[in-house]
């Protein structure tokens, strides 16, 4: 079973958020090497006692002794596991802090082009419900509407990039 004492025996937390191995657990995990390899989404994972864990969960558990239900990377960088960049959140709050999707045609989260209206549509999601913010002539107007609504409804988890 994974315990805080076991983690302290295996890893040393570095100020940059990385976990330094204290002992060699197998030839591919030598002592004095940083632990974690990124998955497809960019989160670092480390194998402990035969099970894969996200590094940000290990860092949190190492410092607080509790297993968080969900953690958010405040700056949006999934590999930045500094303790001051992690906060407990709900799954919804974590989604509020998500970056703009790479396949976004407008490049603005919550804004899409409506060719039938020849306008930009702005919307956000709050408590799993979509809130329509209207249609706008310019991308900038739609972006401003979305940013104001995010600040109002998402609070500290609002991400505007």
CATH topology of the largest domain: Homing Intron 3 (I-Ppo) Encoded Endonuclease, Chain A
Order of helices and strands: HEEEEEHEEHEEEH
Quickly count the helices: 4
The CATH class of the largest domain turns out to be: Alpha Beta
Main sheet summary: 3 strands, antiparallel
Biggest sheet, strands in spatial order?
Answer: 3-4-5
Task: Describe the global form.
Answer: elongated
The name of the CATH architecture of the largest domain is Alpha-Beta Complex
Number of domains: 2
Rounded mean pLDDT is 94
**Over the alpha carbons, how many angstroms does the gyration radius reach?**
20 Å
Q: From the helix content, strand content and strand pairing, which structural class follows? A: alpha+beta
Proportion of beta-strand residues: 25-35%
**Strands, total number:** 10
Uncertain regions: pLDDT < 50 for 5+ in a row? Answer: none
Approximate helicity band = 10-25%
- For the termini, the CA-CA separation is 40 Å
